[in-house]
Specification:
It holds the Pfam family Cadherin_2. With 608 residues, the protein is mainly β. The chain is built from 7 helices and 44 strands. The strands form 14 sheets. The chain has a 4-stranded mixed beta sheet with strand order 1-7-6-3, with no helix packed on it. It has a 4-stranded mixed beta sheet with strand order 9-16-15-12, with no helix packed on it. The chain has a 4-stranded mixed beta sheet with strand order 18-25-24-21, with no helix packed on it. β30 and β31 form a beta hairpin. The longest helix has 17 residues. It binds 2-acetamido-2-deoxy-beta-D-glucopyranose (NAG) (2 copies). The site of one 2-acetamido-2-deoxy-beta-D-glucopyranose has 6 residues, from β41 and β42.
Length: 608
């Protein structure tokens, strides 16, 4: 322990006082030199010998050791005359650690006569003190951005010993980043600076624990340590980094509900605090439409859909995602999210009739194209693959021409007179699961062709007229029918002339088929008129058919009966076979006899 300078000066004053009071009595000054901390009882010197006195005089003259200090470190052995250590002397207790020489002064006083001997005992330093740091732990905050070469002064250690036993040097524990620089002050004390010798990286090592050791120059040397804790202060030297990938590929089904989670992106930032706090965003770029469809949670990085996603509108999206830290200035990174929209069969096929012939002639050839259709489906893949079919049994067929283009063609002979109109249902069905389908109806009208001739109901028409009918009387009305329509069924009647006399007897109205007499008939002259009437339609080419008309003239009682035996002998019984057709004539109550002419059954017996 060192003594304060105030105590030292007071001690000096005391010495001067003694000297002045005893002036002339002090005869000599003896000097001795001993190391501090000598064992008690150790002999420093033999005073009797050194002062040239008889040993017995020490007793007789009451020799007394007066140490000018509160403690009695030494004493005199009055039998041997030796000065010996009574109590261990600590140099640092007596003198300041800064003082290089340290003396303990004392007087040996004799009586009879009084004599005073001054003794100066130099206490030599031994290395009994280790260096000590006033602060056992030093904290330093150093920014990552600090340039190498920067110095940080450290609290130095102190050693109570002096000279060679005081601090000689410092050592720093092994460190890649730090060294120390030792400087010596004007008073010889050592100062130590911590020197940064390379760039710090907080992300690599945020805390550096160093041990500073101070060593003195004693033999053996003593040392003291302090720990230096360097905390590296963050700077925003790291940009956020997207984990794992720069590109996210995400498939999502179309029609995903509004707000559906698409993907969660995550980035990390090696920095700390605001420098490492990440904010996600979708920076609007030139393709703002894609950004409008999605939103991102700035904290969690969850990307959700906004509105519904329609595959038919966009089959894929490319979203740019930004991760930005909150440092000053901030740093950012971007990544891409590729959203692949998976088609759902949400669109039914659509049939577009590109052309259609509203009417088809009934004599159209098999293979005649009557309509063209195109089947469309907005979906992709199988969902958009369409197959068309005709529904029901119709005389048409579908011919696939190209992709989803089809022709509707005549498949069988048509007959307007059987079916004049078709509602052709076309069904289009896609191959999605479940499939979607739609139908469309095209109306086909079969147009008439003159393929039916006019027809009479009977091949032969028999008419009975009374003789003497007036000229211009209606004899019969002929009617033919035609299955065709319009002109093809417009019938004109005409008489096929077989003789020149016929037109003078009867006349035909070509429009109505009515036959009139030109004059009255005379049964006795003509019994039967036979001719053919032709019915012709107005088709192109026209078709016709014939009918045979028999006009029988019925007798009126305008002559006295006369039996004329034209071909038989008188008195013989004439008989004639009745033709088969007589049955019919009979039903009309009359029959035709080539000999008698018309015989009605009221007057004629069939057996003859
Ligand atoms: C065709 O459909 C219409 C209604 O659209 C109907 O009036 C008509 O009778 C149908 N024709 C046939 C031949 O089925
Ligand atoms: C109708 O009679 C005329 C004259 O005899 C003949 O040329 C024509 O072929 C006949 N038509 C039919 C359909 O029998």
């Amino acid at each position: 322990m060192a003594v304060s300078s105030a105590t030292v000066s007071r001690m000096c004053v005391t010495v001067l006082f003694v000297f002045s009071a005893m002036w002339g009595l002090a005869l000599s000054i003896s000097r001795y030199s001993i190391p501090e901390e000598m064992q008690e009882g150790s002999v420093v010197a033999n005073l009797a010998t050194d002062l040239g006195l008889d040993v017995r005089a020490l007793v007789t003259r009451k020799a007394k050791l007066d140490i000018i200090h509160s403690k009695k470190y030494l004493d005199i052995n009055k039998e041997t005359g030796e000065l010996f250590i009574l109590e261990k002397i600590d140099r640092e207790y007596i003198c300041s650690s800064k003082t290089t020489s340290c003396f303990l002064k004392m007087d040996v006083i004799f009586e009879n006569p009084i004599r005073i001997f001054n003794i100066e005992l130099e206490i030599m330093d031994i290395n009994d003190n280790a260096p000590v740091f006033r602060r056992e732990t030093m904290h330093l905050d150093i920014s990552e951005s600090t340039a190498p070469g920067e110095r940080f002064s450290l609290t130095n250690a102190v050693d109570a010993d002096v000279g060679a036993n005081s601090i000689k040097t410092y050592y720093l524990s092994t460190s890649k980043s730090f060294t120390i620089d030792i400087q010596t002050g004007s008073d010889g004390s050592k100062y130590v600076d911590l020197v940064l010798n390379r760039n710090l990286d907080r992300e690599e090592q945020a805390l550096h624990n160093l041990i500073l050791t101070a060593v003195d120059g004693g033999v053996p040397a003593r040392s003291g340590t302090a720990s230096i804790i360097v905390r590296v202060l963050d700077i925003n030297d790291n940009a956020p980094l997207f984990n794992h990938k720069q590109l996210y590929k995400v498939p999502i089904p179309e029609n995903a509900p509004n707000g559906a989670t698409i993907v969660i992106v995550s980035a990390t930032d090696l920095d700390e605090g605001l420098n490492g706090e990440i904010v996600y965003s979708l920076p609007a770029k030139e393709d703002a439409k894609h950004t409008e469809m999605f939103s991102i949670d700035p904290r969690s990085g969850v990307i959700t859909s906004k509105g519904t996603i329609d595959y038919e509108e966009n089959a894929a999206f490319e979203i740019r995602v930004q991760a930005k830290d909150r440092g000053l200035p901030p740093r950012s990174t971007q990544c891409k999210v590729l959203v692949e929209v998976i088609d759902v069969n949400d669109n039914a096929p659509e049939i577009v009739v590109t052309s259609v012939m509203a009417t088809v002639k009934e004599d159209s050839f098999v293979g005649t194209v009557i309509a063209s259709i195109n089947a469309l489906d907005k979906d992709g893949g199988k969902n958009g693959h369409v197959v068309c079919t005709l529904v029901g049994d119709v005389p048409f067929k579908l011919i696939s021409t190209y992709n989803n283009y089809y022709s509707v063609a005549v498949d069988r002979q048509l007959d307007r007179e059987s079916v004049s109109q078709y509602n052709v249902t076309i069904s289009a069905k896609d191959e999605g699961t479940p499939p979607l389908s739609s139908t469309t109806v095209i109306k086909i009208t079969v147009s008439d062709v003159n393929d039916n001739p006019p027809r009479f109901s009977e091949p032969i028409i028999n008419v009975f007229v009374k003789e003497n009918i007036p000229a211009g009387a209606l004899i019969v009305r002929l009617t033919a029918s035609d299955h065709d329509v319009n002109d093809n069924a417009q019938i004109a009647y005409s008489m096929l002339e077989t003789s020149n006399t016929l037109p003078t007897m009867i006349n035909i109205n070509s429009l109505t088929g009515e036959i009139y007499s030109m004059h009255s008939f005379n049964y006795e002259g003509v019994k039967k008129i036979q001719f053919q009437v032709q019915a012709t339609d107005s088709g192109v080419p026209p078709l016709s058919s014939n009918v045979t008309v028999n006009v029988f003239i019925l007798d009126e009682n305008d002559n006295s009966p006369v039996i004329l035996p034209p071909y038989s002998d008188p008195g013989s019984v004439h008989s004639e076979n009745i033709p088969y057709s007589a049955e019919r004539l009979q039903r009309q109550d009359c029959l035709f006899d080539s000999f008698y002419g018309i015989i009605c059954n009221t007057t004629v017996s069939r057996s003859g």
